[in-house]
TrEMBL record:
<dbReference type="Pfam" id="PF13360">
    <property type="entry name" value="PQQ_2"/>
</dbReference>
<keyword id="KW-1133">Transmembrane helix</keyword>
<keyword id="KW-0812">Transmembrane</keyword>
<keyword id="KW-0547">Nucleotide-binding</keyword>
<dbReference type="InterPro" id="IPR002372">
    <property type="entry name" value="PQQ_rpt_dom"/>
</dbReference>
<feature type="domain" description="Protein kinase">
    <location>
        <begin position="22"/>
        <end position="282"/>
    </location>
</feature>
<dbReference type="InterPro" id="IPR000719">
    <property type="entry name" value="Prot_kinase_dom"/>
</dbReference>
<feature type="region of interest" description="Disordered">
    <location>
        <begin position="360"/>
        <end position="379"/>
    </location>
</feature>
<dbReference type="Pfam" id="PF00069">
    <property type="entry name" value="Pkinase"/>
</dbReference>
<keyword id="KW-0418">Kinase</keyword>
<feature type="binding site">
    <location>
        <position position="50"/>
    </location>
    <ligand>
        <name>ATP</name>
    </ligand>
</feature>
<dbReference type="GO" id="GO:0016301">
    <property type="term" value="F:kinase activity"/>
</dbReference>
<dbReference type="InterPro" id="IPR008271">
    <property type="entry name" value="Ser/Thr_kinase_AS"/>
</dbReference>
<protein>
    <submittedName>
        <fullName>Serine/threonine-protein kinase</fullName>
    </submittedName>
</protein>
<dbReference type="InterPro" id="IPR011047">
    <property type="entry name" value="Quinoprotein_ADH-like_sf"/>
</dbReference>
<keyword id="KW-0067">ATP-binding</keyword>
<dbReference type="InterPro" id="IPR015943">
    <property type="entry name" value="WD40/YVTN_repeat-like_dom_sf"/>
</dbReference>
């Protein structure tokens, strides 16, 4: 019998005997961050158990990343991934156990046997598209799809390794100075705008993986990751050798513009029915008695001696050269490639140009389509189409009840809309805008993305630009606090700028903080709440900062992983509490006057909930549509839960409260829903508004805007629409 892969001299030859209750039987392989072992459950089920290398187990930052990996893998466990059986991210040596999947990785298969046959390639394409569809439906972006992360089983391909994945709306920051992913399979936006990467980046990686499966090489080939990075951003993909019937589809997956790439559903639609008639790929049988080699397991281990997990640009060990296009860099291109990597490492942004037209009434938007309102009401619903290209959903904001509505749309620009009738008052075209966030109303001006990807200040009445800013338009770059904009440098220094003029009001480092985030602004008190989690996740430092002066009103360290989400009562702060698996398990209400904190446990765990307060009641909406009402004002007595409601929404936006005791939120299919907060009942829903009849995925699902009795929603079909918030039954 041949020796086991883990036998002999090995850096982890003295691996632990157990991970939790699982006895580790053999070493399947080792990657940059951990070792994967074969194990069995109590019932005899074969498992692949990833155990983190000892040095990384002592790194709090890596532990946080490993917790994220476990949480992501649990969310996407299904037919196209390796299901998570058990995990302990808090163990002395963190570990995760997944179902053992026999079969080679795609990288191994191509290296041993050459490119896949056309029928096998079509089945692989369909299987990976299905896998990405399910991963994205779970709200996760993989960000590192590559041949060594695809297992070929007799049941179809399985996607593994969620070590650097993240939720769509994650606030986790990309580390300055590092690339997240593997350059040959990274999308252009991962080099240019790493903090704005969406599901389309996985589709780009799919295209690159398919080229490798069809030809044995990638669409952008070089021994230097720096040159690969330049090619990905600037050069056309080399599709020579890709079967003719797939070349056009693969080429669209590799489009530089994320909006031009097909969705996984669209990829599958183009393959029917031949892909399902193709013979299933069945991996070559291994020798009798051998345990599957490195890669033939459902662990997050990277194949290839030169590949390193996660953060650094990798040099890949390749097999024999494959004939094809040879890209020979000139000295100028080498300089440009090096400059590109310097830009990526130093700033993680830029690299593309935006342009926009001038302001003016009408703009690109179509005239509003009137619909008949409910009898006896003074308000008539309206719908206005804003988008001129792409599949982006508009994002809007308002300065308050009856105030103007300001909306931004990727690929179209910024517009002001009259909330009474949907009329476009003015618009500023910006067709090169790749990602849009809700315009900021601050200091009497409107701040929205300009042609250079920076925030531009507009006159709210005329719509003409009044000044340019040096602030990135990326979400989270500038935190609005009334008439003040707060920015946080990588050094942790907080700078406050006047929203109207851009003049600096104050600059300082917050005592006790290394790199704080701002999570909440309370207009009544003028306080902005900064928070920072301890590296070990054991506590959170919270500072209440006067946005106008920079003075700290109070500071407190509370136990747990907490995030400020709302205020209640007389300046009391409400925070959510997460467990190690990034699930929200409770709320904390802190009264600074009494210096007392009350913890309210939730009756069940929620994934990435959004919270809005109505008096003492907290309305908590989970990503999967579970809505929970919790009383935060009766500490120590009574039942905290007021009611719960399963709304049936697969993915919901942040909820907002409106007049008449109604709570509103949007669904991914463009529906606007209303819930009666008194009795916890769904009382209204608009029709779905899909883009071309298909569900599209945005990096963020915009919340509706409640402006008095008018409730404004946005939808994937590019429309902004308004309904009467007092009459949800007539929607």
């Amino acid at each position: 019998m041949p020796p086991l892969p883990g036998a002999g001299a090995h850096p982890e030859a003295e691996f632990p005997e157990y991970a939790g209750t699982y006895r580790l039987e053999a070493c399947l392989g080792s990657g940059g961050m951990g070792v994967v072992h074969l194990a069995r459950s109590a019932s005899g089920l074969q498992l692949a158990v990833k155990v983190v290398h000892r040095p990384y187990a002592a790194d709090p930052e890596f532990r946080a990343r490993f917790r994220q990996e476990v949480a992501a893998a649990r969310r996407v466990s299904g037919a196209f991934t390796a299901p998570v059986v058990d995990a302990d991210p808090e163990a002395v040596r963190p570990w995760m156990a997944t179902l053992y999947v026999p079969g080679p990785t795609l990288a191994e298969q191509v290296k041993r046997n050459g490119p896949l046959a056309p029928a096998e390639l079509r089945r692989l394409t369909a299987g990976l598209a299905e896998a990405l569809r399910d991963i994205h439906r779970a709200g996760v972006i993989h960000r590192d799809l590559k041949p060594s992360n695809v297992l070929l089983s007799d049941a179809g391909p399985k996607v593994i390794d969620f070590g650097i994945s993240r939720p769509y709306d994650s606030d986790l920051r990309t580390e300055t100075g590092k690339l997240i992913g593997s350059p040959p399979y990274m999308a252009p936006e991962q080099f240019q705008r790493p903090r704005e990467v969406g599901p389309a980046a996985d589709v780009f990686a799919l295209g690159a993986v398919l080229v490798h499966a069809a030809t044995g090489r990638g669409p952008f080939d070089s021994d230097s990751p720096y040159i690969v990075a330049y090619q990905v951003v600037h050069d056309e993909a080399d599709l020579s050798g890709v079967p003719e019937d797939l070349a056009e589809l693969v080429g669209r997956c590799l489009a530089k513009d994320p909006a031009q790439r097909p969705t996984p559903d669209e990829v599958m639609a183009e393959l029917r029915p031949p892909s399902y008639e193709a013979a299933a790929f069945i991996p070559a049988q291994r020798r009798v008695g051998a345990v599957a080699g490195a890669g033939a397991f459902a662990g997050a281990v990277e194949a290839g001696a030169g590949e390193r997990e996660g953060a650094e640009a990798a040099t890949h060990v390749r097999g024999a050269a494959v004939p094809g296009r040879r890209w020979r860099p000139t000295r100028g291109r080498l300089v440009l490639a090096a400059a590109l990597l310097l830009v990526v490492a130093g700033a993680g942004a830029g690299g593309f140009a935006l342009w926009g037209g001038g302001g003016g009434g009408g703009g690109p938007a179509k005239a509003p389509e009137r619909t008949k309102g409910a009898a006896g009401t003074a308000f008539s619903p309206w719908s206005t189409s804003l988008r001129t290209s792409g599949r982006a959903t508009p994002v809007c904001s308002s300065a308050g009840a009856g105030a103007a509505l300001y909306c931004a749309v990727a690929g179209t620009g910024t517009a002001r809309i009259d909330p009474a009738d949907g009329r476009v008052v003015w618009s500023d075209r910006n067709t090169a805008l790749r990602e849009a966030s809700a315009p900021i109303v601050s200091g009497g001006v409107v701040l929205s993305a300009g042609p250079d990807g920076k925030l531009r200040a507009y006159d709210p009445v005329k719509g003409v630009p009044v000044r340019e800013t040096g602030l990135s338009a990326s979400p989270g770059s500038a935190f609005p606090a009334g008439s003040t904009l707060l920015t946080v440098a990588d050094s942790g220094t907080v700078t406050a700028l006047d929203g109207a003029s851009g003049v600096e009001r104050w600059e300082r480092s917050l005592t006790g903080h290394t790199r704080p985030d701002f999570g909440l602004y309370d207009e009544a008190s003028g306080l902005a709440y900064a928070f920072e989690h301890a590296a070990d996740g054991a506590s959170t430092l919270v500072t209440a900062v006067d946005a106008g002066s920079g003075r700290a009103a109070w500071q407190l360290r509370l136990g747990g992983i907490l995030t400020p989400v709302a205020t209640a009562g007389a300046g009391e702060l409400v925070l959510t509490e997460m467990n190690a698996d990034t699930q929200t398990v409770g709320l904390v209400r802190y009264a600074p006057g009494k210096r007392s904190a009350v913890r309210i446990a939730l009756p069940f765990r929620l994934d990435e909930p959004q919270v809005v307060m109505g008096g003492d009641a907290a309305y908590v909406l989970g990503r999967g549509g579970s809505l929970l009402a919790v009383d935060t004002g009766t500490p120590g007595g009574g039942k905290a839960e007021l009611w719960r409601l399963e709304t049936g929404v697969g993915r919901g936006s942040a909820p907002v409260l409106g007049e008449g005791g109604h709570l509103y939120f949007s669904a991914a299919d463009g529906r606007l829903l209303a819930v009666d907060t008194g009795r916890g009942a769904l009382v209204g829903a608009t029709r779905a508004r899909l883009s071309g009849g298909k569900l599209t995925y945005a990096s963020d699902l915009p919340a509706p805007v409640a402006a008095g009795r008018v409730v404004v929603g946005t939808a994937p079909d590019g429309s902004v629409f308004a309904v009467d918030g007092l009459e949800p039954g007539g929607w």
